[in-house]
Amino acid sequence: MILHGLDIDTKATADNVRRFLTNDLQRYLQIAGTNRIDLKSPQITGMPKGSPVGNTNEQHYVEVAYAESVVCCVSRAISNCRAFSNAILTKKYIDGLPDWKIAVELQYSFSRYKDLKRIALCEFADRYLYQTTHNHLDVNDLHVYK
Length: 146
Fold this sequence. Notes:
Layout: H1 10-32, H2 55-79, H3 83-94, H4 99-105, H5 110-134
C-alpha cells in the first residue's frame, strides 16, 4: 500500500483539525446526544444505543449511530495521543480553556505552547485517521498533504 505521502502541511492540517474540533465536532455531539465533557469519559462505546424501527425513523437512527461513532473516534484519538498532546487537546477542546491559560497551567512559554499545540493538532489528525479507518467510517482525512 502506498501512503499519500508523509510530508504534510502542518499549518494547514492544524487549521483543519482546529475547525473540526471547534465546529464540526459540536454538531456530532448534538446528534449523538452527548457533551464535550463526555469525551473524557470511558463510557463512550461507539455502539448505537437504539435499533431501527420502521423506515420513517431509519435515517435518524443511522445518523445518530454515525455521530456516536465519530464522537467515539474523537475520544479515542485524543486519549491515544502523547501526554502533552492529550493535555493540550483536552484543556482546549473539551474543557474550553483559552490558550494563554493552558500555556500557564502547563508551564510553557506562549511561543512554545503554540508550537506544541500545532504538533498536538497534527498528532490528532493521525490518530483520528487511524480510528475512523479502523472503525470503517467514511470521513474526510483532516491532513493536508504538500
